[in-house]
Structure formats: structure tokens, C-alpha cells
Amino acid sequence: MTANESAVPPADEGGGRPGAAAGGSDGRESRDSTGTATDHAFSEDRDGAEERGKDNPLALKVEELILGAARTYTPFQAARAADVPMDLAARFWRAMGFADIGQARALTEADVLALRRLAGLVEAGLLNEAMAIQVARSTGQTTARLAEWQVDSFIAGLTVSPEPGMSRMEVTYPLVELLLPELEEFLIYVWRRQLAAATGRVVQAQDDEEMVDRRLAVGFADLVGFTRLTRRLEEEELGELVEAFETTAADLVAAHGGRLIKTLGDEVLFSADDAGTAAEIGLRLIETLSGDETMPELRVGMAFGTVTTRMGDVFGNTVNLASRLTSIAPKDTVLIDGALREELTAVGDAPHSEKDSGPGAGYRFALQPLYQRPVRGLGVVEPWLLGRRG
What we know:
- Strands 1, 2, 3, 4, 5, 6, 7 and 10 form an eight-stranded mixed sheet that branches. A two-stranded antiparallel sheet has the order 8-9.
- It has helices at about 5, 40-45, 45-50, 55-65, 75-80, 85-95, 110-125, 130-160, 170-205, 210, 225-230, 235-255, 275-290, 315-330, 340-345, and strands at about 215-225, 260-265, 265-270, 300-310, 315, 335, 365-370, 375, 380, 385-390.
- Helices cover about 50% and strands about 15% of the residues.
- It has 15 helices and ten strands.
- The protein is α+β, with helices and mostly antiparallel strands.
- Strand 4 (about 300-310) and strand 5 (about 315) form a beta hairpin.
- The protein has three domains: about 5-130, no CATH class; about 140-205; about 210-390, Alpha-Beta Plaits (2-Layer Sandwich), CATH 3.30.70.
């Protein structure tokens, strides 16, 4: 036990009620380890904390297996044990995506250690406070989606009993016990590979500005008529269609050297460092999905230009233009902007004009100009229809 841990109020302080340590019936104001009043959202809602104390004991058993420890601390106690001001602990907690829990005793030694680590990075000068909050937020958002996806993927195994009479708990607990260490190791492996790739891109950047504002090809692939499909298909069928679309798109983008930025159900957003890679991905998406009778038609829009990257997402006029091109693209086609067309012609992947595109020219892609048209918020653009040569 550390000196900080020994200072944690005992479990029965304040009459033993969850939340009493944050301000019991004697009216005293709760204060963190620095003497500052505790975060309001964490110091109230005593009734809610007591209600949460009635959690299903079987669910708590699974939670303890996953977290590796029993619930020990209230947020106030955890902040004191970590020697972190309560208001900063509350900001870290919310940034990670966790709900306010009043002063319920719901935290473990791992929560204390996480607070210590984040605060320690700030104290050591490796991160400032705003960056530490960003680290917490980006990690929380990414892993929240991952956790939901994993549970959804395994839900059939959690609910279907292999033997008659087995409860869900009897099925779930050993399954989690077997999967947890394997998934944890796999998560760390994939994260390290992705971190190595991202770090490599930063190291190769020409200057600091290029690390944030980069010239990229950005593309959207959108399922046509998805809204109508949602009214016609059963929920399970719709879920299977979306999963098949996202899986196929993700595989194609990765296989051909692009990066999947995010999936939006009926739409995916991807990027590539060069125009040729983006063009190949766009056409492959159309070619692959148009050959699948279970899939609706697809349309792709792509643009090339300066893109602001932040927390794994992309922003800016180039992204907006790619989205607008997608919305006006005919079914099963790829539309690109003039900048992406110029990049393709500059490296010899596409002809400057039709007179340059004779037999044996060796171009990978064909380009057909379409009528100029106004695009909301971006003025008049000249889209180009992208295709393959030969």
C-alpha cells in the first residue's frame, strides 16, 4: 500500500452510503486532495449511486473478471489515491467516455493507476493537460466502438446455450475468460503496427505544417438508395448488409494502400497518399460490389488537396468536395475533381487529353469530362468520370 492509498477514506466513512464521502448529511463540502471543491457532477446524485449499488451480482462477477479487480473506490477516493485533483480526474473520466457515477464505489486499482499515469505524463512535461485530455478522449472513443463491435460479434455465442438448461452466465463467463487474454494481446499487437505506420508517415513529413495539413486524396463510397432499404429489410438483414459492405470496403482500401478513416453505415470515408492509389481503390470498390447481387448500387466521389488531420479524422474543403461529388455521381461510377485528375495526368496514370490516349499509350485510367455544375458551398466544379483503360 502506498502513502496515497493509506490516505483514502475507509469504505464505511460517512455512514457507509455511496456518495457520503463526497458530502454526507452533515452538510460538509467535499474537497479533493488539493483542498479544492470536488467536481459537481461527481459529488451529487447519491440516490443514483445507491441504485447502482444494486447491480446484478452475476454481471458484477463478469465485470470483475474483465477488470481484474473488484470495485473498491469512489471517484473521490480514487482521485485521492492517485494524488490527482478531483476536477482533473473528472475531466479524464469523461474524456474516456465514462458516465458520471456520483460517488458510487465503482472504481478499481486499475482506475487509480490510469489516473496516475495520465497525470504523471503531464507532471513530467511529456504532455500538457489539453493533450492528456485528447489522449484520453481518442483512446476512449476508439476502444468504446471496438468493445461494442466485439460484444455484438460474440452475442450469438453469449446467448445460445451449448447445452440445455445452461444460463447465459454459465455460457458467458468461461467464454470471456478464454477470449480476454487473447483479445488483449491482439489489440496491443495491432495498435503497435498502426502506431509504427502512423509514426513513419510523420517522420517522412517535410515539415511540421505537413503533419497537420497534408495533401491527400480523399474519397467517399456511398450505397445508393439505402434509406429505402431500411424500410424494406428486416433489422437483421440490414445489419448483415452493412457489415458485408463495411468489411469489403475496409479490406479493399487496406489491400491497395489506402486508409479507412471511418464507416457510417451506408458510407465509408477513406484516404490515400497519392492519386493513383485512390483511383485504384475507387474503381475496385465499384467493380467488386457491382458484382455482388446482394448489394445495392454504389457511387464514389474523390478529391485531392490539402486536408487537416486530427485525432484520426480528416477535415477541410477537400473532404467536403469529395462528399459533394459522391452525392452527384451516377450509380456505379467514380467521380473525381480537377485536382485529382491533374495528379493522375502528371504522373502518367491518365492522358492529358483524348488525342494522347491511343493504343499502346500505357495509361492505367481513362478520364471523361462532365458538365460543370455548381456545388453547394464550393462554387462551380468540373467533375471527371474515372474509368479504366482498355
